[in-house]
Amino acid sequence: MSKLLWQPAEERVKSTNMYHFMKYVNARHRMNFTNYGALYGWSIEESPVFWETLWAYSEVIHSQSYLRVVDDIKKMPGARWFEGARLNFAENLLRYRDDRIALSFKGEGRSTVSITYGELYHRVAGLAQSLRDLGMKPGDRIAGFMPNMIETVIAMLAATSIGAVWSSCSPDFGIKGVLDRFGQIEPRVLFTADGYRYNGKEFDSLERISEIIKQLPSIEKVIVVPCKGSDPDFGTIHNGVLFEDFLATEPTDLHFEQVPANHPLYILYSSGTTGVPKCIVHGVAGTLLQHIKELKLHSDVKREDTIFYFTTCGWMMWNWLVSSLALGARVFLYDGSPFHPDPAAMWQMTQDEKITIYGTSAKYLAALEKAGVISTLKRKFRFRLSSH
User: Fold this and answer.
1) How far is it, in rounded angstroms, from Cα 115 to Cα 123?
2) Do 371 and 338 touch, CB atoms closer than 8 A?
3) Which residues are CB-contacts of 122 (< 8 A; sequence separation ≥ 6)?
4) 104-156: per-residue pLDDT in tens?
5) Which of 341, 336, 276 is nearest to 310 (CA)?
């Protein structure tokens, strides 16, 4: 048997979301689970009941209830979940509309900026109204060639609030990489920044965008977010407009388009190592419930938390991270090199910003180890770091 490295105190166990969920299951289904192993076994053996219970426990906002949880659970792929339900993904992420911080963003070499849940709701409402005025409708594709910043989240929420489908690439992708992805989905609207910073250098995005849109005739509007400067020159961008100029200044109340549970939400992509990247469509209810399960139960995210994951908008962990808004947490966004200005940059930021839940890749930890900075980090920040 492997040696037990650590075990939480009973008081800590009982304060977790997972423990509260177990008590909820016991009360709802007259069970008597006392540990995670038993709860996990039940979730596998009684999968439809588990997902139905998670829907109720998570208080999923919906306008119409489902007729059944799943039609044929043994059908993979092709099983249809929560048929009959009508809901909106963005509405569930914008359930909080108060003065607590929703999003914080730190660009490389820049100070942190933040917006509240109330401000986020208002800005999403303004952008959603502008997209509707443009003629965008449910099922249309909206794409982002954006850094990991607040405007990217606003754009995604506005798109999904009207039932459109969101897809994004990281701005470090080349022209071919973008066309291989967006060329398959034919977006009508494209959000882009004028550029981005990485490892102490500035990179331009508009030159690539001007070439990309020449080969993407489906794009009707390009919305430009200033990142390098306050007044970007986008004269070569056909139908380009600044983000703030496109945003409705006095929007009506945000109307959340109610869509079926399996309505497309995100289009993500395979790596492209075996040919053109394959489009992977994720549905509204499945994505929402899976993310809530992982964030609320497994990651124990609470309203008082600040959650961070080192990711770009081209990786599915970005989609996962922003779903933390559904739990009312402060979501921290960073764009830039994790080694600028030094290898301790991310850990200094974590300490300064009081980040309570930190996510990163094994590759980053391996890079820290290879750079020989692990011992320095241990001394400076007084934490235990394992490569296992």
Assistant:
1) 10
2) no
3) 251
4) 999 999 999 999 999 999 999 999 999 999 999 999 999 999 999 999 999 99
5) 336
Residue 37 pLDDT? 96
Measured from the Cβ of residue 70, the count of other Cβ atoms closer than 10 Å reads 17
Q: List the alpha helices (DSSP H) in 237-281.
A: 243-246
Cβ(25)–Cβ(31) below 8 Å: yes
> Three-state SS for 101?
strand
Instruction: Show the tokens assigned to 294.
Output: 């992982």
Please give the Cα distance from 281 to 222 (Å, whole number): 23
Which H or E element spans position 14?
helix 10-14
Map out the domains of the chain with their CATH numbers: 10-85 (no CATH), 90-337 (3.40.50.12780)
**Sole residue written with tokens 């996990």:** 40
| DSSP helix/strand/coil, 386 | coil
Amino acid at 17: N
Alpha-carbon gap, residue 383 to 378, rounded angstroms = 5
- Mean pLDDT of the region 191-218: 95
Name residues whose C-beta falls within 8 Å of residue 186's C-beta, 6 or more positions apart in sequence.
141, 216, 218
Tokens of 285: 């209810």
Per-residue pLDDT, 380: 64
Q: Give the tens place of pLDDT for each residue, 210-267.
A: 999 999 999 999 999 999 877 888 888 889 999 999 999 888 889 999 999 999 999 9
Q: Which residues contact 214 (CB under 8 A, 6 or more apart)?
A: none
Cβ contacts of 159 within 8 Å, gap of 6 or more: 131, 136, 142, 165, 166, 189
Q: What is the DSSP string of 183-231?
A: HHH--SEEEEESEEEETTEEEE-HHHHHHHHHT-TT--EEEEE-SS-SS
Q: Which residue is associated with the tokens 């947490």?
A: 329
Q: Tally Cβ neighbours within 10 Å of residue 81.
A: 21
